């Protein structure tokens, strides 16, 4: 199945897959225009992010080639090689990392003139699996 980008608004591109070539009859109610087909999610994602007014991208193959050479797309390339289970675990770990290392407080404590006495309990290790194969 090929990847496509459906255009809804001026800057609104939606990634979708389709076994058949999208037509006005099949996808016209969802999108004003469709760009593609792209071989991979990586190529489509690269075009969506960096393709606007890029003279080096004339075809979907150009987007694919440039995406694979661009270090900004490294995470997308790694995720592409993961199984659904590995990707779910990695995304869960990412959410845990963001919550643990976020600079924004996740719990707001009321400020009172009374001095609080007690024990502060810190979060221990997370149960994030490591050692996933990414190649």
Number of strands: 3
For the sheet with most strands, the description reads: 3 strands, antiparallel
* Cα-to-Cα separation, first versus last residue: 23 Å
Main β-sheet, spatial strand arrangement: 2-1-3
- Which radius of gyration do the C-alpha atoms yield? 22 Å
The pLDDT mean sits at 81
Question: How much of the sequence is in beta strands?
Answer: 15-25%
Class by alpha and beta content: alpha+beta
Uncertain spans? 112-116
Number of helices: 5
The general outline is: globular
Q: Give the helix level as a range of percent.
A: 25-40%
Order of helices and strands: EEHEHHHH
Describe this structure as you would to a colleague:
The chain has helices spanning 24-27, 41-50, 60-69, 74-81, 84-101; strands spanning 2-9, 12-18, 33-38. With 135 residues, the protein is an alpha+beta fold. A hairpin with a 2-residue loop joins strand 1 and strand 2. The radius of gyration is 22 Å and the shape is globular. Residues 112-116 have low confidence and may be disordered.
């Amino acid at each position: 199945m090929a990847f496509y980008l459906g255009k809804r608004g001026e800057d609104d591109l939606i990634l979708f897959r389709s076994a058949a070539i999208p037509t006005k009859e099949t996808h016209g109610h969802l999108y004003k225009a469709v760009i593609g087909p792209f071989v991979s999610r990586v190529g489509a994602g690269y075009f969506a992010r960096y393709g606007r007014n890029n003279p080096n991208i004339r075809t979907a193959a150009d987007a694919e080639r440039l995406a694979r050479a661009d270090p900004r797309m490294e995470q997308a390339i790694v995720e592409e090689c993961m199984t659904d289970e590995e990707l779910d675990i990695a995304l869960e770990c990412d959410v845990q990392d963001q919550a643990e290392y976020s600079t924004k407080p996740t719990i707001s404590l009321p400020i009172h003139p009374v001095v609080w006495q007690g024990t502060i309990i810190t979060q221990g290790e997370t149960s994030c699996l490591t050692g996933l194969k990414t190649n």
